[in-house]
Design a protein that fits this description.
Elements (H helix, E strand, L loop, with lengths): L1 H24 L4 H20 E4 L3 E7 L2 E6 L2 E4 L5 E8 L3 E11 L5 E12 L2 H6 L4 H18 L3 H6 L1 H16 L4 E12 L2 H43 L1 H16 L10 H6 L5 H13 L19
Antiparallel strand pairs: 1-4, 2-3, 2-5, 6-7, 7-8
Length: 308
């Protein structure tokens, strides 16, 4: 934008003066030639004086080597040759990526860490005068800060506490870059890469831990089942009717699954009054007829159904 405006002003001034000289002195007169030459120099000076800064840019203006002012945004003028603009400072938020390769943690594990830095220039004068190349300085400061933090942190903390690591990095980098007029907005740790052998070892450790937890849960379940069986045994011991109904239900569940041989404790048969041969035969006949018709109701127990 600034170059276009300067070129346009140069052409306009030269054209106006040349047209005016031709109108007054004639197109081929010496006076017209001198006037055009003067107009050329004047137009060149004006075009070099016009500068335009974008809304996010600040121009550092030096006059004879001394800091004069910060110019912009918008249109401003300088004195050619006397005034110079060595830096155009971008005041927007800038993103820089940095990494630390093969850096040892506190427990001597080599890791690679990638991070992203979000920062902006809040004092363009300091950024231009206090450091030679503020972008390069910020990059190196970020990398050294990352290496320092890794060297003071255990691997487990690096993998689990990325938020804490990012906060610590932001604090350290902001302290280092504050004299340069730079404000660190945030630091994000993108990735932590560990050696392949260590990844396999950590995977095996996690698998073993899950297996241990599964065994603990299974043992706890067995203990709870045993406790429930103990409570049920006490209930049956104090209530013979409940034991009688439970025994009949167990016999029914065994016979209805197409079973041809059912082993029943003698105490259960005595409880159900089926210890005699006639009782067993009656029960078998009743179950055999169950497939053809309705089974008779006995002792308040629901009808039993089997398939022959």
């Amino acid at each position: 934008m600034g170059r276009s405006l300067a070129a346009l002003s140069f052409l306009v001034i030269l054209a106006l003066v040349a047209g005016l000289g031709a109108l007054l002195f004639g197109p081929t007169s010496v006076a017209t030639g001198v006037l055009v030459a003067v107009a050329f120099v004047l137009a060149l000076i004006v075009s070099l004086s016009i500068k335009v800064a974008a809304p996010w840019d600040r121009a550092v203006v030096l006059r004879l080597g001394c800091f004069r002012s910060l110019a912009g945004p918008g249109l401003f003028f300088i004195i050619p040759v006397i005034d110079t603009i060595p830096y155009w400072i971008d005041t927007r938020v800038i993103t820089s990526s940095f990494k630390a390769e093969k850096t040892l943690t506190k427990d001597t594990v080599p890791i690679d860490v990638d991070a992203v830095l979000f920062w902006k220039v809040i004092d363009p004068q300091k950024a231009a005068l206090a450091v030679a190349d503020y972008t390069s300085a910020i990059s190196w400061a970020s990398q050294t800060a990352l290496r320092d933090v890794i060297g003071k942190t255990l691997l487990a903390d690096m993998l689990e506490g990325r938020g804490k690591i990012s906060s610590e990095l932001q604090r350290i980098i902001d302290e280092r870059t504050e004299p340069w007029g730079v404000n660190v907005i945030s630091v994000e740790v993108r990735d932590v890469l560990i050696p392949a052998a260590l990844q396999d070892a950590m995977s095996m450790q996690a698998q073993a831990e899950r297996e241990r937890q599964a065994r603990v849960i299974l043992g706890d379940s067995e203990r709870q089942v045993a406790e429930k069986f103990g409570e049920a045994a006490k209930t049956y011991a104090e209530d013979p009717v409940a034991l009688h109904l439970r025994a009949m239900n167990m016999l029914y569940e065994g016979l209805k699954q197409n079973s041809t041989i059912v082993i029943v404790p003698s105490s259960a048969l005595e409880t159900m009054q089926l210890s005699g041969l006639a009782g067993v035969t009656a029960l078998s006949m009743g179950l055999g007829k169950n497939g053809a018709g309705k089974a008779p109701e006995t002792h308040g127990v629901e009808p039993m159904r089997t398939e022959s």
